[in-house]
Amino acid sequence: MILIKKTIQQGRMVALKHQQTHSGEKMKKAMFTLTKLAMALSGIFVMQTAAAEQASRVMDAVADGQVKVNMRYRYEFVDQDGIDKNANASTLRTRLTYNTQAYQNFSLIAEFDNVSYIGNDNFNSTANGKGEYPVVADPKGTDVNQIALKYRNAGLSADLGRQRIVQDGQRFIGGVAWRQNEQTFDGVRLAYEFNNKMKIDYAYIHNVNRIFGPEGAKADLKGDIHLVHGFLPINESHKITTFLYEMDFRDALALSNQTLGVDYNGVIAGIKLHASYATQTDTGDSPLDYSTDYLALDATYKFSKVAFTAGFESLGSDNSVGFQTPLATLHKFQGFADKFLSTPKNGINDLYVKVAGKVSGVALSATYHIFDSAEQSIDYGSELDLTAKYKFNKRVLGLLKYAHYSADEHASDTSKVWAMVNVNF
């Protein structure tokens, strides 16, 4: 009996120890589980807090963004031989631009344009069917002018979306900002500036939003477009740009071209100098077969408050195909009358002189052009351009322009007058 009692007691003790051990293990497991749960909850809380802080900063970048409003009214008159009726265009462009503040080097731009007719609309906008009038290429409508995500960090910049691209005085790539509908580009652009100010710039464009409005027949120019630039500042007085353009258009095959060139700007003995050379061939699915050159030379000397400029520009020809500049700001070159928006088949030479200065705060300029062909010695005609610009204050700018093209063996005599007021809010 004693032996049996001892055995029972020992069993109870073993069972108690086992129960205590098992309970301890359960307690440890419970504590471990609670610890993991606490850590997980803490992680979620930290993540939620960080996400909330980031969201708050993003909202602050949006809320603190800058809004700009621009209104540009313009009256344009055109008297063109061969068209009985004169054009009278009274248009207003209203532009709303919004830029967010930067967040982690990213920002966003959104810009909207509306072109409306204010009063007289007797002109051919290229989209209103009024072919009995001369062309004033300002169709009415509302469009997204820019919407792009931007990244800026040290020397690196990147832009994705619809954007403004202006290069090298806009002779090859520009915004045609003179027209009420600006030309912008859909694609991606990357640029890097080194410490010595040398810069590499590349853009891939899949669509060009042209000046003909959102609903015009020629509103878009689609294709595979590569724009490569290299900027090399030799010193403070001399700078060189090299460029390569590969433009393979989808619906305008004859405009497809490959252009390789160099552009120089400098100052020598107080004379501002500019020189540019480029060579161009057909590319992609172009039905044309040609190879031709571009050359530009000009010099400006400022005496007292008057600047004198003399220049020569030549767009060559080969196989009856002129040098192409389909993405240029063409109104800026070869006369304000816009008689050479496409290069004639025999090319074009433009010899010009310009005088510019200020009188009582009014910026005045006069330019005279003589045009002839690059091949076949054809006299195209001549043109006189006059401008008067006055800045009323930091927000309001007024402009008057006049152009008269006197035809010889190209186009027809044309006179144009512009009166414009630009207001920024």
Q: Quick summary of this structure?
A:
The chain is mainly β and 425 residues long.
How does this structure look, described?
The protein folds into two domains: 64 residues; 355 residues, Beta Barrel (Porin). The radius of gyration is 34 Å and the shape is globular. A hairpin with a 6-residue loop joins strand 2 and strand 3. It contains one helix and 20 strands. With 425 residues, the protein is mostly beta strands.
Shape: globular
Report how far the terminal alpha carbons are from each other.
Answer: 109 Å
Number of helices in the DSSP assignment: 1
Query: What is the CA-based Rg, rounded?
Result: 34 Å
Biggest sheet layout = 18 strands, antiparallel, barrel
Secondary-structure map:
Elements: H1 2-63, E1 66-80, E2 87-99, E3 106-122, E4 141-153, E5 156-163, E6 184-193, E7 199-209, E8 220-233, E9 238-249, E10 257-268, E11 271-282, E12 291-303, E13 306-315, E14 317-318, E15 321-322, E16 348-359, E17 362-372, E18 379-391, E19 396-407, E20 414-424
Antiparallel strand pairs: 1-2, 1-20, 2-3, 3-4, 4-5, 5-6, 6-7, 7-8, 8-9, 9-10, 10-11, 11-12, 12-13, 13-16, 14-15, 16-17, 17-18, 18-19, 19-20
